């Protein structure tokens, strides 16, 4: 199964770290929230770095 990054926006502090680290995956949507782009596959290194740098610990892989 493809690994897809997911966000827990309830905990997101809107620091924009993920947008800087991995802009091809993390976007700010029209409503002003951070979201995960709809990609067929995700760059694992970049997402891992965003996960480890997120101060709110709200990015995770959904492997279901
Ligand atoms: S790095 Fe984490 S806390 Fe910061 S904007 Fe991204 S998801 Fe939110």
From TrEMBL:
The lineage of its organism: Bacteria, Pseudomonadati, Thermodesulfobacteriota, Syntrophobacteria, Syntrophobacterales. Keywords: Electron transport, Iron, Iron-sulfur, Metal-binding, Transport. Ferredoxins are iron-sulfur proteins that transfer electrons in a wide variety of metabolic reactions. This is Ferredoxin. It holds the Pfam family Fer4_13. Residues 3-31 form the 4Fe-4S ferredoxin-type domain. One of its GO terms (molecular function) is iron-sulfur cluster binding.
């Amino acid at each position: 199964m493809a690994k897809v990054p997911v966000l827990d926006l309830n905990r997101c502090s809107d620091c924009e770290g993920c947008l800087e680290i991995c802009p091809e995956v993390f976007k700010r949507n029209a409503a002003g929230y951070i979201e995960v782009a709809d990609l067929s596959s995700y760059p694992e290194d970049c997402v891992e770095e965003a996960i480890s740098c997120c101060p709110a610990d709200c990015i995770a892989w959904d492997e279901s």
